[in-house]
Amino acid sequence: ASEFTCELCPYEMRPDTNRTGCVPISIIKLEWHSPWAVVPVFISMLGIIATSFVIVTFVRYNDTPIVRASGREMSYVLLTGIFLCYAITFLMIATPDVGVCSLRRIFLGLGMCFSYAALLTKTNRIHRIFEQGKKSVTAPRFISPASQLVITFSLISIQLLGVFVWFAVDPPHTVVDYGEQRTQDPMAARGVLKCDISDLSLICSLGYSILLMVTCTVYAIKTRGVPETFNEAKPIGFTMYTTCIIWLAFIPIFFGTSQSAERVSILHYII
C-alpha cells in the first residue's frame, strides 16, 4: 500500500492501527465465565445432581416391589440418557480440539437416543401387550427385561453406527469462523474457534433421535386408552406430546440464531 492506494488484507487478517500493514485477527471461543456458558452449566449441575440422586435411590432400593414394578432395566437406561444429556453441556463449552470435537459427535445425540429408545421400547411393549390381549390370553413375545434391553441397545447401536460412518466420511476437526463476528470496524473483528460441524451434519446427528421420538409419540397415542394397570403409558404420552412441541419450536429458533454461543445455550435447553 502507498499514500494513494490501498490493498485488502487477507481474509484472516485486519489492518494494523496505522493502516500500513496487516495483523492476524484475534481468535476467540466460548469461555466458561461467559453468561452463555454459566447458565447452562448451572442448570446442568442441578440436573446431574438430581439424576444422580434418583440413580442412587434406585440402586439402594433395587429389589423393592415399587422399583421392580417401574421396570428397573429400562429405568436405568432412561436415567443414563438423561445424565448424558446434561453432561454434554460441558463438552459443548470446552475448548474445541480434535478430541473434544470427536466426543461432541459421539455424545451429542447419544443421550437423547438412550432416552427415546428406552421410552419407545416401553410404549411398544405396552401396545403389543394390549393388542395381544384383545386376541388371546397368550403373552406377546419379547416382553421380558432381557428382551427389552436387547431391543433398546439395538436401537442405540444404529445411532452409534451412524456416528462412526460420519467419522469415516468427515473426520472431526476444528475451524476458525471469521464470518460469524463480521463487523464494519476492523479493530473489532474476531475469529471464532469451533468444531467444523455443519447445520446439515447436526440435523443428521439428531435426526435419528427425532425419528425415535416421533415413533414413540405414535405409540403413545395408540396406548392412550390402555387400562389403568399400565399407569406409565399416560405420563409417557404427555412427555412425548410436550417434547414434540418443544422440538417444533427449537428448529426455527436454532437455525435463525447466528451466534455459536447462543446456539450452545439453545441446544442445551432443548436437550
From TrEMBL:
PROSITE patterns, alphabetized: G_PROTEIN_RECEP_F3_3, G_PROTEIN_RECEP_F3_4
Main location: membrane
Alphabetic keyword roster: Cell membrane, G-protein coupled receptor, Glycoprotein, Membrane, Receptor, Transducer, Transmembrane, Transmembrane helix
This protein's record includes keyword Cell membrane: yes
Start and end residues of each G-protein coupled receptors family 3 profile domain: 36-271
Residue ranges crossing the lipid bilayer per the database entry: 36-56, 76-96, 102-121, 142-169, 200-221, 233-255
Range of residues in the leader sequence: none
Keyword Protease appears in the UniProt entry: no
Compartments reported by the entry: Cell membrane
Membrane topology, as annotated: Multi-pass membrane protein
Listed InterPro entries: GPCR_3, GPCR_3_C, GPCR_3_CS, mGluR
Any Pfam family the entry gives: 7tm_3
Protein name from the UniProt record: Metabotropic glutamate receptor 8
